[in-house]
Amino acid sequence: MKAVARDRAISVALVAPSLILIAVFVYGFIGFTGFSSLTKWDSLEPNFKFVGLHNYQRLFSIVPTDRFLCDLRNMVTFTVLFLAGSIVLGFALAILLDRQVKGEGIFRNIFLFPMAISYVVTGVLWRWILGPGSTQSGGALGINLLFDKLGLGFLKWGWFTDPTSVYIHPDSHFGVFLSHIGLGGLATPYVGISLAMISVAIAATWQMSGYTMAMYLAALRGIPTEMREAARVDGASEMQVYMRVIVPMIRPITLSALIVLGHISLKIFDLVVSMTGPGPAFATDVPALYMWETTFRGNNFAQGAAIAVLLLLLVAVLIIPYLVSSTRSEVRR
Amino acid sequence: MSRRIISTLSIVLVLGASLALVACGGGKSNKLEIFSWWTVGGEGEGLKALFDIYHKQYPNVQIINAAVAGGAGTNAKALLATRLTGGKPPDAFQLHAGLEVEKYDPEKYILPLDDFYKSEGLDKVLPQDLLSLLQYKGHYWGVPVDIHRANILWYNKKVFADAKLQPPTTWDEYFKVVKALKARKIIPLAFGSKDGYEAGHTFETVLISVLGPDAYKGLWTGATKWTDPKVADALNTLKKLLADVNSDHSALTWDGALGQYFITNKAGMMIMGDWVNGWFISQNFTDYGWECVPGPKVFDGLSDSFALPKGAPDNTNAMNWLKVCASQAGQGAFNPLKGSIPARTDVDPSLFNPYSQSAMKDWTSEPIVPSVVHGAAATEKWATVYKDILATFATSGDVAAAQKALDQTATDNLAK
């Protein structure tokens, strides 16, 4: 009995310092941020006058500025494009490398190099590549110049300087139909695709597809060749071998890649700040950038706290189901 | 047993030695810590010139340059806020003159300098408009070192000479010039909006020219309503202005736009503050002219000053630093290197380049208004929302919505 109690005491004592530190510096601060978001704190001296959900209402309103709504739209556009791009590209590269090519190690390293660069460097790099130059000066730059030289001049466009948002216009047929069935709220510029974010998504995909490629490559190597051969013996074509046998087996990898990349994309900051800034009409603005500006330049700590809480909720929506399901499967084991 | 004794003894010795070192390190020595965001270029050199003057007068004091890099002091200001509230402030720190001081809760953290102004006679050598700008809640909080002007229309002399154009002084003339430049396939106005504040900056110059100095100042105190039709006029003028800029402006900063279009004679004009002057000097480009932004001649000013924290145990060194900054010699050494003009009206103009000399004349003769984008006219909170509204307007062109938004944020910020 005594030995068990002593063991328990030692384990508690070992874990306690970390627990206390996390409780204070993570959860305590989260609580303080949540509390601050309900106050009127907009100067150096904390002002904890309670104003309820005023800051949140301000974020979701169009007056004085619709910046946060644009941020949410941009964040969704970026997340969808970035996740789809990284996973598809990573999987494609992994399949190609899985073919036992000569110099596989070299190719693997080349595809993984971008991950070693900081996001700031990637941002500056892609700003130079995708910077459109201007039509008036007669000088396209970067990739637009390349299109010109290859005779593909019609492909030129503004890249991240294009403020267009593709959305369902309330007066269009589909928009009218939506308002008939009560979903008229979906026909606004804030539920759409921000074309400028495509450029940022390209830069981020370039950086992180090496990561997904590495994960998929390891997973593909883990599939026993007997399975593939059995499938082929049963008459499956190459395509069917992949779609019916391999893809389902690497589903857990896809899931963890989605989670890791997803929470990076929700909180993306340094890539946007170095590549495009907030962009024309906030076409490339993201919540983290807005939070930084409003807190450290605008001194509006309460509003920054509100954005931080919303960001936390968004990431939690992504991560908590994954944690719950993985804990459950562990318990089952 | 003996191994235990040795290991215990060695631990005690190491701890004791480190404690002794810490105690030694904290000894009193004659230091002066200056906090600013002047790290590179003309600004860094100007600060060093001030250090040299101080060192000649007070050779026993060690100057610590605690400058923090980062444009417009974004990083420095955040760090300063932390140090002020944390109780370890620097001996003297840089501050934009005007309402930016509200950000640091001056009554709690900053030393009022009214006696200093009297003893140094500053109220006689600084213009009256600047003095009223420097006051907040009835006290002076900082000593101004330099003045920058925000509302200048820079033009490329070669482009204008080739097109046989005169720099415009009214908006009608301006749009005629735009037509002529467009016909010659030259970008009328170079513009770079990557940092997000440039549309707000251009708009404040248009506001000043359309409303005039007093009505403009009234916008920030509530005396002038933002729903005034003149504000709508200003918005429409800005819309026309921005219709003829380079199409890739959101990918360029102001200096990027200058470098790509202005110096290469592909653009004719730019509206920006006179830090452009410092940039031209660093690029060895002299073929430029300047005019006040079309409209009445008003000096849209912003100023850097130095302030002292409240409650410092011994601020003799810091006070001497302020004396150096406020002196003729100090301002005459700092400003030519930075490309700005001195706040004092009695510094020798021959130390400065042609643009600065003309600006110094304007400083003493024209009415002075505070710049909002650069921290003088309104609190940072208001200035940030103003800048965002203008950034949206620059693309949407919706005058009614912008005016409504500007009015809403004025109500928010004036209703304290």
Describe the structure.
With 333 residues, chain A is mainly alpha-helical. Chain A has a domain at 65-225 and 252-301: MetI-like fold (Orthogonal Bundle). Helices cover 68% and strands 3% of the residues of chain A. Chain A has helices at residues 2-36, 54-60, 67-97, 104-116, 119-130, 142-149, 173-180, 197-222, 225-233, 238-249, 251-266, 270-275, 287-296, 301-332, and strands spanning 133-134, 139-140, 165-167, 192-194. A two-stranded antiparallel sheet of chain A has the order 1-2. In chain A, strands 3-4 form a two-stranded antiparallel ribbon. In chain A, a hairpin with a 4-residue loop joins strand 1 (133-134) and strand 2. The radius of gyration of chain A is 25 Å and the shape is globular. The mean pLDDT of chain A is 88. Chain B has 416 residues and is an alpha/beta fold. Chain B folds into two domains: 31-148 and 302-365, D-Maltodextrin-Binding Protein, domain 2; 152-300 and 372-414, D-Maltodextrin-Binding Protein, domain 2 (3-Layer(aba) Sandwich), CATH 3.40.190.10. In chain B, strands 1, 2, 3, 6, 11, 12 and 13 form a seven-stranded mixed beta sheet that branches. The longest helix of chain B has 24 residues, at 2-25. Chain B starts with a helix and ends with a helix. The model of chain B has no long low-confidence stretch (mean pLDDT 86). The A-B interface holds A 42-45, 63-67, 127, 131-138, 158, 160-161, 163, 276-282, 293-294, 296-300 and B 74, 77-78, 81, 84-85, 102-105, 108-109, 185, 187, 193-196, 246-251, 260-261, 266-267, 379-381, 383-385, 388-389, 391-392, 394-396, 401, 404-406, 408-409, 412.
In short:
The complex is a heterodimer of chains A (333) and B (416). In chain A, 68% of the residues lie in helices and 3% in strands.
